[in-house]
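Sanity check

After download, print the first record. It should look like this:
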Amino acid sequence: MAELNTIARPYTKAAFDYALTKGGLDQWSQMLALTAIIVNDSDMKRVLGTPSLSAEQKAELIISVCGKKLDDAGKNFIYLLAENNRLPLLSKISVQFDQLKADHEKSVEVDLTTAYELDNALVEKLATALRSKLGREVKMTSRVDQTILGGVILRANDLVIDGSVRAKLAKLAVAMNS
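Expected structure tokens:
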């Protein structure tokens, strides 16, 4: 897994630097997300895995599916990836690109999981606390998962804060069985 991330990183960096200089971070993020979805489709994987297709034909297939959602630079990027047999890396490139974009924009997406629906004031209070703790703009998405019983779980990139009752009960069970 780490190897694929390492291989994808130079392509991600090149795309990011290009998008940054052209002022198209959002556009490139959308293009990469779309192409990642396309190459990860099971039917498309089967077609792209056909040895009789040339790199150019594979690139043209992806570009035709994308339609007008790819600009010329995006098309060239797909041709480059196809030529180097790197099309399967598009999902890694998309994720890495979005991380670079978030770092550049000093923002972070936080996934908040609670056992029950929280009111907006409480979610905003939590977002404000995270904003000051992380030093970034926080984009909060919340969901309800009653299996955590109570408390909250926060996920922001590599940071996971599990304050759920379920996690505390699991720790207690481990301590009691030791």
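If your output differs, re-run the checksum step. Summary of this record's structure: DSSP finds eight helices and four strands in the chain.
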